[in-house]
Amino acid sequence: MLLEDLNIVLRVAEFKSITAAAESMNMRTATASVAIKRVERELGAELFIRTTRRLRLSTAGERYIPQCMEGLNALNIAKQNVRTEKDVISGELRLSVPSDLGRNIILPWLDEFTEEHQDIKLSIHIADRNIDLYKDSVDIAIRYGSLVDENLYGFKICDVRRVLCAAPLYIERYGQPKIPQDITEHNALLYQLHELVDSHWRFSRNNETFKVKAVSNRKTNDADLVRRWCIAGKGLAKKSCLDMSNDLLAKKVVRVMKDYEPTSTELWIVCPSRQTITPAVRLLRDFLKKKTNDVINKLTENKIL
Q1: What global pTM score does this model have?
Q2: Which of 273, 264, 238 is nearest to 253 (CA)?
């Protein structure tokens, strides 16, 4: 059985279309169809159920495809390990990143990463939602929050403090809160994930916790838009210090109510299986640890944190 044929089968399963899979691999649809037939003939079973409108996995396909994927991943890792011994890191990294952190912080870092390791190719999915690592075409995800799914694997990149921010323009017009209760007199810029709006803001000071219901005329499911509104002076934003780092250092926004600390979070690289933890992933992990540590140190040196 040809490895190329197996790769075609997996790509068809991913796209749920022979034509789309063939286009993604720069080959004719007929060539992909023949490859599928060769694999099915050797297995003695049909992997796909084809109709005039759609294509889906058969019962045999549902059993075979995941095992085939694991086998090919293991083979790719073995190849990668051999290349690593020769000081060559290569392959494609398919990763998901959050909207604000991804666009404004991580993407420039990834440009630097691939400049250093030019045999690595990137495929980037930008989304704030936690995508399904088993169904979506992603090898790893960079996520805020601790790793709670026991079926996933991951590496903690760093602890991330949150900050309450406002633009100088907003402070000039409306002043700034001194204590959490003052937030109810200000306009908060709210982030919404799925149906949950982050409007109950928590702060701590001297081991005491404070909770306040934020009032807002703006909410969005895009964390990057919250940052843009904040810079434009539309209200207060409770954000990751990494997300706001460039703007804080450039003084486009300032940290307010410093004596009260918003609930902190963590940044992780998350993987669906051990097979996806390739040498390239480990290299990216170490690179991100260094870059985030540099940013946090710079914020501390400038007395922002």
Answers
A1: 0.70
A2: 238
Contact criterion met (CB below 8 Å) for 253 and 234: no
pLDDT tens across 254-278, in order? 999 999 999 999 999 998 877 778 8
On whether both 139 and 198 belong to a single domain, the answer is no
Q: Where in the sequence is the domain holding 110, given as residue range(s)?
A: 89-160+266-301
Complete edge-to-edge strand list for the sheet that includes strand 162-166: 237-240, 162-166, 254-255
pLDDT, one tens digit per residue, over 227-240 is 999 999 999 999 99
Angle in degrees, CA 91, 94, 96, rounded to 5:
155
H/E run at residue 114 = helix 107-116
Task: Choose the weakest-confidence range: 23-37, 170-184, 202-216, 232-246.
Answer: 23-37
Specify the DSSP class assigned to residue 180: G
Write b or e for each residue in 245-279: b if 16 or more Cβ atoms lie within 10 A of its Cβ, otherwise e: bebbeeebbbbbbeebbbeebebbbbbbeebbbbb
What Cα–Cα distance (Å) separates residue 107 from each residue in 14, 143, 162, 180, 277?
26, 14, 21, 34, 21
The domain that holds 52 is classified in CATH as 1.10.10.10
| Alpha-carbon torsion, ordered 218, 219, 225, 229, to 10 deg | 20
